[in-house]
Amino acid sequence: IKGWADFPDRNLIKYVKKTLRCRLRILGVKIKVLGAAGEVGRSGFLVNCDGTNLLLDYGVMFSKKRNDPPLYPLHVKPKDVDAVVITHAHLDHSGCVPALFNGGNTSVYCTSPTLDLSMLLIEDMLKIEKNKHSFHNGHVNSMLRNSKEIRFKEPVKVGNATFELRSSGHVIGGSTVLVEANDKRLFYTGDINPNGSRMLPKADFDIGDIDILITESTYSQTDQMPRKESENGLIEFANEVMDRKGILFVPSFSVERSQEIACVLKNANFKYPVVMDGMALKVNDIMFRYPEYLKDVNIFADAINDAFLIRDHGDRKKAISEPCVVISPAGMLVGGNAVFYMQEIASNDKNGVAMVSYQAEGTPGKKMLETGKISTRGKDMKVKATVRQFQFSGHGDRTALFDMIKNIKGDPKVLTVHGDENSCTKFAEEIQEKFGLDAYAPKLGEEIAV
Questions:
Q1: How many whole angstroms separate alpha carbon 409 and alpha carbon 429?
Q2: The dihedral of CA 424, 428, 434, 435: what is its sign?
Q3: Number of CB atoms found within 10 A of residue 19's CB
Q4: Cα separation of 220 and 399, whole Å?
Q5: Alpha carbons 163 and 155: distance in angstroms, whole number
Q6: DSSP notation for 155-217
Q7: What are 47-84's pLDDT values in tens digits?
Q8: How far apart are CA 450 and CA 432, in angstroms?
Q9: Are 136 and 122 in contact (CB under 8 A)?
Q10: pLDDT by residue (tens digit) across 325-373?
Q11: What is the number of other CB atoms lying within 10 angstroms of the CB of residue 124?
Q12: Residues 394, 193 contacting (CB under 8 angstroms)
């Protein structure tokens, strides 16, 4: 500024000089991809809305090697985050949020079921993986104190941005996020199941025109077996095992999948005892607290109230003394009570194992499906029990995802994330080809301005 030294207001001069040194702020929306780029896990997206930063999810990704540390999203300074929005409780979306309270502070927004389930899963993660994480229970408590529970369709204004949550159909309390700022509208699917499930309503797509879509791509290249066929197959298998006086073990994720399987059995008027064990029982209690998030609370209540709930080890021994179906974590046979049940039933061919959860590479469940063996007491053992796999995913498959894209309003730029590299890349190419939208699979650390 010519002649600035003669300007009478020295404070104003300092302010102008400081402003000139600052980088030019881009009006609109800018997204930085912190995780879930060409991978399933550690979701995290920093959305800059004209200077207001919203962090959409901040999860962990567990290593395929037993002793390796987990992977986190790219680091973000807590002071640079105006609010965190957690779409749902699964650890690959919520598990790293406590790290933001390791010397920092921010506000966390999510539905009530998501908060309760996130606390349960994060605390369990820290208990199992002692000293593996950069945060501890003290940081989890700080996260809880700074959390704000909101309902679906409840607008929240933070700085220059407004956001609201919509039902995702994925897990109880699970949500998508609709962000509005500077005349731009962003829709983030998180994990989504457009068709819902036996317990959950369909995803809510009544969102109007959008400018940006960040969509999961997990099963974008796969059409899954229709749910009715999967249910019928599971019931038929369960009856086969019962007819030969065996035990059917269903290793299942504790959040949603265990409860879904119990509802399927109840709906089929299954005549034998259904046993539930492990963390699924604590999840049951949380779900009972929030009936308004279920499609029909009676469907859930009837299934859980009729089940035999394991309270101690003596109950386990008693339960498997007669033909029954046992539903218990861990869904991939990684620890938990699954180890006990597999040791008890694997060596007898009258028993069965129904795999109803996703099996990641390197997990005991994946190994069993590929080799027919499990490791027990330090040795590989052939599984003589009949093993079958059924598709009960909480994610939308290829057909459901393309139907979602087809019905999205507006002409949005599309970012394909939360899938392996091939799924994300191919999905983006197909979206461009089928719908003429600007779509691509972003890289880790990439920034996209809209």
A1: 19
A2: positive
A3: 8
A4: 8
A5: 6
A6: -EEETTEEEEEEE-SSSTT-EEEEEEETTEEEEE-SS--TT--SSSPPP-----EEEEEEEE-
A7: 999 999 999 999 999 876 666 789 999 999 999 999 99
A8: 17
A9: no
A10: 999 998 888 887 899 999 999 999 999 999 999 888 788 999 999 999 9
A11: 16
A12: yes
Closest CA to 259 of 224, 233, 225, 290: 290
> What are the pLDDT digits (tens) for 5-21?
444 454 544 444 444 33
d(CA 175, CA 293): 11
Read off the pTM.
0.91
Give the C-alpha distances (Å, rounded to integers) separating 61 from 76, 349, 398, 418, 426: 17, 36, 24, 12, 23
User: How many angstroms separate the CA atoms of 447 and 439, rounded?
Assistant: 14
411: helix, coil or strand? strand
* Residue 155 identity: P
**Class of residue 219 by CB neighbours under 10 A (exposed 0-12, middle 13-18, buried 19+):** buried
**How is residue 323 written in tokens?**
């033909």
Say how many C-beta atoms besides its own lie within 10 A of residue 265's C-beta: 24
Q: What CA–CA distances, in Å, run from 28 to 280, 326, 408, 417, 448?
A: 43, 52, 21, 22, 11
What is residue 121's three-state secondary structure? helix
Q: 103 — phi, psi (to 5°)?
A: 90, 10
